[in-house]
């Protein structure tokens, strides 16, 4: 008789740092994409608290934000019945593998990272070793789960590259220990830009709140921020991705395209000949209407602390089971005594 052999699902890993309120950039570049991948892949999503302390955090706030981030994942459509959700620091394998991989990563590789250069110039009083080795911890997150795909925003692709290089180097010495992962970008929204300086990426830790849209902002604040977004004096709605002078309009077109599952070119066509004011109004409406149901869900979920704690507990156990297999293998390969 013919057997119906189903292939095991490919594994996905990703996460966001609880370093501030999630922005529209985080949502469009990463979380929205995760939601659509849940049915076809085995997904693991974490709250990356170990990463977040590379920049100074207030302890009580970090704890609160970590749970808020979990509630937001779920409100955005991540289903804890389908995907594994956990807090990074609840699984010590991440820090353990990071130590080993630190010994297989070169200073020169880390020195080239844009995020390190950027964050060390913004936090000149705290250029700590954790900020420098951040990509090694991220590589550990990914490699522990034998991950095949990592859905992230464009800014993280350099870190995925370093992860692949370190994994290949390790495999080159010890045999096939790690699966070599690939980054996965969305078509529109992989890099949402700042509303005040549209040549810079929108970042949740930007000191100017007008630069980003937080998923937690009041709806009228969201509309106001979009309506006062920096554009240009040309007054023409056209998508010209290589023209820096059009960065503001390009960004709004990209946001609109991501919200409506369209392309920036198609959106530009739709609004051809209209004024910036009308266009900005339409973008503001689309963003508010997309965020509204997420916020309603969020307000409901965040109240249920027992539910959230339960998810963390189950997620930590499930992640631990998978991660230990890889960690044991690594320990054995490098010559540690493993029972
Ligand atoms: P921070 O400002 O604290 O460095 P961040 O806003 O850059 O944070 P992260 O936690 O580093 O956010 O990123 C979480 C995910 O969101 C990553 O996959 C990242 O690539 C994605 N992301 C972040 N900013 C943007 C953006 N502006 N556009 C698209 N995706 C983004
Ligand atoms: N560095 C990521 C957050 C992150 C991550 C990961 C993303 C930490 N570990 C592993 C994907 C896979 C960021 O967005 N800044």
For this entry, give a set of tags.
three-stranded parallel β-sheet, binds L-tryptophanamide, Tyrosyl-Transfer RNA Synthetase, Rossmann fold, mainly alpha, binds adenosine-5'-triphosphate
Walkthrough of the structure:
The protein is about 55% helix and about 5% strand. It is mainly alpha-helical. It has two domains: about 10-185 and about 305-335, HUPs (Rossmann fold); about 210-300, Tyrosyl-Transfer RNA Synthetase (Orthogonal Bundle), CATH 1.10.240.10. It has a three-stranded parallel β-sheet. The chain has a two-stranded parallel sheet with strand order 4-5. Helix 8 (about 155-175) links the parallel strand 4 (about 150) and strand 5 (about 180-185). Helix 7 (about 130-145) crosses helix 8, helix 10 (about 245-260) crosses helix 11 (about 265-270) and helix 10 (about 245-260) packs across helix 12. The protein is globular, with a radius of gyration of 21 Å. The mean pLDDT is about 95. It binds adenosine-5'-triphosphate and L-tryptophanamide. L-tryptophanamide binds near residues 13, 14, 16 and 159.
Which segments are poorly predicted (pLDDT under 50) over 5 or more consecutive residues?
A: none
The average pLDDT is 95
User: Residue share in helices?
Assistant: 40-55%
CATH topology of the largest domain: Rossmann fold
Overall structural domain count = 2
In CATH, the architecture of the largest domain is: 3-Layer(aba) Sandwich
Number of helices: 13
* Total DSSP E strands: 5
């Amino acid at each position: 008789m013919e057997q119906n052999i189903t292939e095991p699902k490919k594994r996905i890993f990703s996460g966001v740092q609880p370093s501030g309120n999630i922005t529209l950039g985080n949502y469009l570049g990463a979380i929205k994409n995760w939601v659509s991948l849940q049915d076809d892949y085995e997904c693991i999503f974490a709250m990356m608290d170990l990463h977040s302390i590379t920049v100074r955090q207030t302890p009580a706030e970090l704890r609160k934000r970590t749970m808020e981030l979990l509630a937001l994942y779920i409100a955005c459509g991540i289903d804890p019945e389908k995907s594994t959700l956990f807090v990074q620091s609840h699984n010590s394998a991440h820090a353990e593998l990071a130590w080993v991989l630190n010994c297989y990563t070169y200073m020169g590789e880390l020195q080239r990272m844009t995020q390190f250069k950027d964050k060390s110039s913004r936090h000149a009083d705290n250029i700590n070793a954790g900020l420098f080795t951040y990509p090694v911890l991220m590589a550990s997150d990914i490699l522990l789960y034998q991950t095949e795909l990592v859905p992230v925003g464009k800014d993280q692709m350099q870190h995925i590259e370093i992860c692949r290089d370190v994994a290949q180097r390790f495999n080159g010495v010890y045999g096939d220990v790690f699966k070599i992962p690939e980054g996965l970008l969305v078509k529109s929204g992989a890099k949402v830009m700042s509303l005040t300086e549209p040549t810079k990426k929108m970042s949740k830790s930007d000191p100017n709140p007008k630069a980003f849209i937080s998923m937690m902002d009041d709806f009228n604040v969201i509309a106001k921020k979009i309506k006062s977004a920096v554009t240009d004096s040309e007054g023409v709605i056209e998508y010209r991705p290589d023209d820096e002078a059009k960065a503001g309009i390009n960004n709004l077109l990209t946001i609109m395209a991501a919200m409506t599952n369209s392309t920036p070119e198609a959106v530009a066509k739709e609004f051809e000949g209209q004024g910036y004011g009308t266009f900005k109004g339409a973008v503001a409406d689309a963003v508010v209407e997309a965020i509204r149901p997420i916020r309603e869900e969020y307000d409901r979920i965040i109240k249920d602390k027992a539910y959230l704690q339960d998810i963390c507990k189950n997620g930590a156990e499930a992640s631990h089971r998978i991660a230990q297999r890889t960690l044991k293998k690594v320990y054995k390969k490098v010559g540690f005594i493993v029972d």
